[in-house]
Specification:
heterodimer, A: 352 residues, alpha/beta, D-Maltodextrin-Binding Protein, domain 2, 41% helix, globular, disordered N terminus, B: 542 residues, mainly alpha, MetI-like fold
C-alpha cells in the first residue's frame, strides 16, 4: 500500500542527486579553480577532426607540456563553427581544429580568429595555410573515386567533369551534403564558370539519382559492397573502409585518381586556428606549433585517419602513395574560401 | 501519505471524520469556486515553464528577422521545399496511424488480456525507444539494402516510435474505470463494441497525446532519415545551419516546422473535441479491470507481440551482437571507457527526467484543472517544442546562455535544462493523460478537510497520477539516453556520454568499437522499461 510514493520519490530523488552531484566530475563542469591553484592552464579545443587521432595528439602534447591541459569538444565541424559564431567573443574555446578550410574561413570572416603563430605558419608551406595568416594547415587529402572491384579500368572516368556524362547513369554515387564535395564544385566553377558547374551538378545528380547518399562513409561502403560502381569521395575514406574490411587486400574496391591537374582533383586542407577571444593565447600557440611539428605529424601519419601530414619531410602513412606523387589541380584554400559559392550552386541544383 | 496511498490503491474513501453527505456538500461548494480562480503559484510556475520552453521560438524569430525577405524567398519557394514538405507530411501521417494502431493493440493486450508473460512483453515493447536511430537504420539498410525512401522510413520510425503511444495508452487503460466497461457489457454490447464505444473513449486523451508526440517527433527527426536516404524538412535546416552557416535561413525554415507543429496541435484540438469526463464515475473506488480470457486467441496475440518485439528489438540487437563479436584490427583506445560514459549518461538521464516532470507538472495541472484559453496556449507552446530539431533548441540555448547566463554555459545545469526543455512535451502528455483520469473531487475533498494546496497535491493528486508520472519519467529517461545533437553542443567540454562515444566511433565506421557503447545504452534502457512493467504489476496485486 505504501509503494505509490516510490514513484513520486523517483523524480525527487533525481533532483536530490543533482544537488549531491553538482561537484561530481561525472557530469563535467569547470575545474578552472583547481587549475588556477596548481598553476596549470586549461585549453579548450573545439575539434571537428577524427576523434581518436585528436586524442592521441592531445595526450602527446600534454606529455611535452605538463602545465597545459587540453579539454576536447568533438562535434561535426559545421556544428562547431556555428556554435562559435553564436558564442562570438564570449566563446570558451581557445582553439578550433576543423576538417576543412571553409569552416575555418567562416569563423575567420567574422573576425573570431587571432593571428596564427608565425613559427607554425612558416613551418607549413603557405599554400596550406590561411591566406590571412589566421590558421595553419595540419593535414590534407585529395578528392578521388572509389571504384568497385569488378569495374574495368577502361570504364573509370579520368576527369571529374566526365562524371556528368550520361553513360555513367545509375553507376555513380555521391553525398551532396558532405563538406568534402564542395571543394570539387568550387574548383569546377572556378575553371569553367558557374553555369558549367550547375550543369555538372545536375548531370551527376541525374547519374546518381538512385545513389544520392548521406555521407562519404556510406558512398564508400556502397561501392565496396557492390551496390554501385563508382563513388566520388576523398581518398582517406577508402583506407578507413579497407581497415574495416580487415585489410587493404580484403577490400572489394579500389581508389582511382583523376588525371593529373584535373580541376575536380582537389587537395583540401584541415587546419587549426586560435580564437581571438582566447585568454590563453600563448598556451594555445604552443599547441598549434606542436601540431605543425614532426612528432605530431608522425602521429597523424601513423593513425587510422589516413590523412596526409603537410609538414615538409613528414612521410605519409605507408599504405598511401606519398603526397608528392599526387598531382591535384591548382585550386588552393584561398579559392575555396568559405564555401558559399559551392553551397549556393548545390542549392540551385536542389541537392541541399 | 496514507490518504493518498489509500485513494490510489482503491480502498474506499472512508476517512473517519468524513461522512458521504458532508463530503458531497463540501465538494459542491468547492466546485463553484474552483473554476473562478487559478492558484497564482500554479499559474506562475506554468508561465515560468512555458517561458523556458519558449526560448527556442524567440531565438528563431529573432534570427529569421535578421535575414530579410530575399534569401528566405529563394530558399522557401523552390521545388525542393515542396518535395520535402510532401515527404514530411506523408511520413507523419503514415507513421502516426501505424503507431497508434500498434501501440494501442499492444497496450490492450498487455493490460486487458490474460496474455502470458505480460510483464516481459511490457518491458520489451518499450526498449526500442532507447536504441539509437543509427543502429536501427544501419541494421535495416544492411539487412535489406534496397529499403529506403518512404517505405523504409515508415518501417523504421514506426518500430522505434510506437512506445510513445504504447506507454500513455497503457497508463490510461490502467487507470480507466472498469465499471463503465462492465456496464456496457452487461447491457449487451459486444466486446468489440465495448472497446469502440467505451474503452476507446477512455483512452482517447492518451491516444491523442501520444499521436501528437509521435507526429511532432517525426517533424524533428533527422538521424534516421539520413541513413534511410529520406529527406524531410529538418534535413534542410541542418544543412543551412552547419553547411551554409546561415542561421537566419535555418531559423526561417525552422519556423515553418513550428507552423506545421501548430497545425498538428490544432488538429489535435479538434480531434479531442470537448472530451467529457474520463475519470472514474464513482468516488475513487478502484478495482482492477477484468482481463479478457484469450483462450486459443493467445496464439495470434503472442505471435503479434513476438513479431513486434522481434522486428523492433531483436533485429537491431542481433546487429549489435554481430558487431561485438567482430574484432577490429586497428582500433585506437577509447576516449572514455564504457563504465565512465555509462555513469555520466545515467546521471544526466535521471536528472533530465526529473527536470522534465517538474516543468510539465504545473502546466498539466493548469490545463486539466483550470481549463481556459490561457492554459490552452501554455500547453500548445510547451508541446510545440517537440517539433523542433534538437540542434535548433540547443543553438537557441547557446545563444541565450552565452548572452544572459554565461556562468551556466556548458555546465551540467544548462545541459539538464536543455534535456528538460527538449523532452518536456513527452512528460506533459503522459502527466496530462493521467490527470484526466484522477477525479478532481478527491483533491477538493482533501482541501475541504483542511489540507493546504501543496499537501493535497502531494498526498492526493500525485499518488493518483503516479502511473502517468512514471510513464513520463521513463519516456524522458529513454530519450535522453540516446539524444545526440543537443548533447554534443551543450555537454561540458571533455565529458563523454555513451551516445557521444558511440557517435565518435560510428562516425568513423569503427562499428566493433562502437558496439559496447550501444550495448550499454540498451542495457541502461532496459531498467526503466522493466521497472515500469514491474511497478504496474505489483500495483495490480495490491
Amino acid at each position: 500500500m505504501r509503494r505509490t510514493p516510490l514513484l513520486i520519490a523517483a523524480p525527487l530523488s533525481a533532483i536530490a542527486l543533482a544537488a549531491t552531484a553538482s561537484g561530481c566530475s561525472t557530469l563535467g563542469g569547470t575545474s578552472a579553480t583547481a587549475a588556477q591553484v596548481s598553476g596549470t592552464t586549461t585549453l579548450v579545443l573545439y575539434s571537428g577532426q577524427h576523434e581518436q587521432t585528436t586524442a592521441l595528439l592531445v595526450s602527446a602534447f600534454e606529455k611535452l607540456n605538463p602545465n597545459i591541459k587540453v579539454t576536447v569538444r568533438s562535434d561535426d565541424e559545421g556544428a562547431l563553427a556555428q556554435q562559435l559564431l553564436q558564442e562570438g567573443s564570449k566563446s570558451p574555446a581557445d582553439l578550433f581544429f576543423a576538417e576543412n578550410s571553409p569552416a575555418l574561413e567562416q569563423v575567420q570572416e567574422k573576425g573570431l580568429l587571432a593571428p596564427a603563430p608565425a613559427e607554425a605558419l612558416s613551418a607549413i608551406p603557405a599554400k596550406y595555410d590561411s591566406p590571412q595568416g589566421d590558421w595553419v594547415g595540419i593535414t590534407a587529402r585529395v578528392t578521388c573515386l572509389v571504384v568497385g572491384a569488378g569495374v574495368p579500368a577502361s570504364q573509370v572516368p579520368t576527369t571529374a567533369l566526365s562524371l556528368a556524362d550520361p553513360k555513367y547513369k545509375g553507376k555513380l554515387a555521391f553525398a551532396g551534403s558532405e563538406t568534402d564535395l564542395q571543394p570539387a564544385i568550387t574548383a569546377i566553377a572556378d575553371k569553367y564558370g558557374t553555369k558549367a558547374a550547375t550543369d555538372w551538378l545536375n548531370g551527376i545528380k541525374a547519374n546518381a539519382a538512385a545513389h544520392l547518399l548521406p555521407d562519404n562513409e556510406t558512398v564508400t561502403k556502397d561501392v565496396d559492397t557492390g551496390q554501385v560502381q563508382i563513388g566520388l569521395v576523398d581518398n582517406y575514406y577508402w583506407y578507413r573502409q579497407a581497415v574495416d574490411d580487415g585489410g587493404f587486400d580484403k577490400a572489394h574496391s579500389r581508389i582511382a585518381y583523376f588525371a593529373a591537374g584535373d580541376p575536380g582533383y582537389v587537395l583540401s586542407v584541415s587546419g587549426i586556428g586560435i580564437l581571438a577571444s582566447s585568454k590563453h593565447k600563448d598556451a594555445a600557440a604552443s599547441f598549434v606549433k606542436f601540431l605543425a611539428s614532426p612528432p605530431a605529424e608522425k602521429i597523424i601519419a601513423d593513425s587510422d585517419s589516413f590523412e596526409y601530414p603537410v609538414l615538409p619531410g613528414s612521410p605519409a602513412n605507408a599504405a598511401e602513395p606519398p603526397l608528392s606523387t599526387l598531382n591535384p589541380g591548382t585550386v588552393g584554400v584561398d579559392k575555396l574560401g568559405d564555401g558559399s559559392t559551392a553551397i549556393s550552386l548545390l542549392q540551385q541544383a536542389q541537392l541541399l | 501519505m496514507q490518504e493518498g496511498a489509500l485513494a490510489a490503491n482503491g480502498a474506499p474513501m472512508s476517512a473517519p471524520s468524513l461522512s458521504p453527505a458532508a463530503a458531497a456538500a463540501a465538494v459542491s461548494g468547492l466546485v463553484a469556486s474552483r473554476r473562478a480562480r487559478r492558484p497564482p503559484v500554479l499559474l506562475g510556475l506554468s508561465l515560468a515553464a512555458s517561458a523556458l520552453v519558449l526560448l527556442p521560438m524567440l531565438f528563431l524569430v529573432y534570427q529569421a528577422a535578421q535575414a530579410g525577405w530575399a534569401p528566405l524567398q529563394r530558399l522557401l519557394f523552390r521545388s525542393l521545399t515542396a518535395h520535402l514538405l510532401i515527404n514530411t507530411i506523408e511520413l507523419a501521417v503514415c507513421v502516426t496511424v501505424l503507431c497508434a494502431i500498434l501501440g494501442t493493440a499492444a497496450a490492450y493486450a498487455t493490460e486487458r488480456t490474460d496474455l502470458p508473460l505480460r510483464r516481459m512483453w511490457s518491458a520489451l515493447i518499450v526498449i526500442p525507444l532507447a536504441i539509437p536511430d543509427f543502429i536501427v537504420g544501419y541494421t535495416w539498410s544492411s539487412l535489406w539494402p534496397s529499403l529506403h525512401g518512404l517505405a523504409g522510413a515508415v518501417l523504421v520510425m514506426t518500430l522505434s516510435l510506437n512506445p510513445l503511444i504504447y506507454l500513455p495508452v497503457k497508463a490510461a487503460l490502467r487507470e480507466a474505470d472498469p465499471g463503465l466497461e462492465e456496464a456496457a457489457r452487461s447491457l449487451g454490447l459486444s466486446p468489440l463494441g465495448t472497446f469502440r464505444r467505451v474503452t476507446l473513449h477512455q483512452i482517447r486523451p492518451a491516444l491523442i497525446g501520444g499521436s501528437l508526440v509521435v507526429c511532432l517527433a517525426l517533424l524533428a527527426e533527422f538521424g534516421a532519415f539520413e541513413i534511410l536516404r529520406f529527406q524531410t524538412f529538418t534535413t534542410t535546416i541542418f544543412t543551412e545551419f552547419t553547411l551554409a552557416y546561415s542561421t537566419s535561413a535555418a531559423s526561417a525554415l525552422a519556423l515553418v516546422l513550428v507552423l506545421l507543429g501548430l497545425g498538428v496541435l490544432v488538429a489535435r484540438h479538434y480531434a479531442a473535441g470537448r472530451h467529457g469526463r474520463v475519470s472514474r464515475a464513482s468516488g475513487g473506488a478502484r478495482r482492477p479491470p477484468i482481463r479478457h480470457r484469450l483462450g486459443l486467441r493467445v496464439i495470434p496475440v503472442t505471435l503479434g507481440c513476438l513479431a513486434l518485439t522481434g522486428l523492433s528489438l531483436g533485429v537491431p540487437i542481433s546487429t549489435l551482437g554481430y558487431w561485438l563479436t567482430r574484432t577490429q584490427p586497428t582500433t585506437l583506445p577509447a576516449v572514455a571507457p564504457v563504465p565512465t560514459a555509462a555513469e555520466t549518461t545515467l546521471l544526466y538521464a535521471l536528472l533530465a527526467a526529473g527536470g522534465a516532470i517538474l516543468l510539465a507538472l504545473p502546466v498539466a495541472l493548469l490545463v486539466e484543472r483550470h481549463p481556459g484559453p490561457l492554459s490552452r496556449v501554455l500547453e500548445s507552446v510547451t508541446l510545440s517544442v517537440q517539433g523542433l530539431p534538437g540542434l535548433v533548441i540547443a543553438m537557441a540555448l547557446v545563444f541565450f546562455a552565452v548572452r544572459y547566463a554565461f556562468p551556466l554555459y556548458q555546465s551540467p545545469i544548462l545541459m539538464v535544462a536543455a534535456y528538460s526543455v527538449l523532452f518536456c512535451p513527452l512528460a506533459l502528455v503522459s502527466v496530462r493523460a493521467s490527470l484526466a483520469h484522477a477525479p478532481a473531487r478527491l483533491e477538493e475533498t482533501a482541501r475541504s478537510l483542511g489540507k493546504r494546496p501543496l499537501a493535497a497535491l502531494l498526498r492526493v493528486t500525485l499518488p493518483l497520477i503516479a502511473p502517468g508520472l512514471a510513464a513520463g519519467f521513463c519516456l524522458v529517461f529513454l530519450s535522453v539516453v540516446t539524444e545526440l545533437t543537443a548533447t554534443l553542443l551543450l555537454l561540458p567540454s571533455g565529458v563523454k556520454t555513451l551516445a557521444t562515444q558511440f557517435w565518435a566511433f560510428q562516425n568513423d565506421q569503427s562499428y566493433a568499437a562502437a558496439a559496447p557503447y550501444a550495448t550499454a545504452i540498451v542495457a541502461i534502457a532496459v531498467v526503466p522499461g522493466y521497472l515500469l512493467g514491474v511497478w504496474f504489476d505489483k500495483k495490480r496485486g495490491a
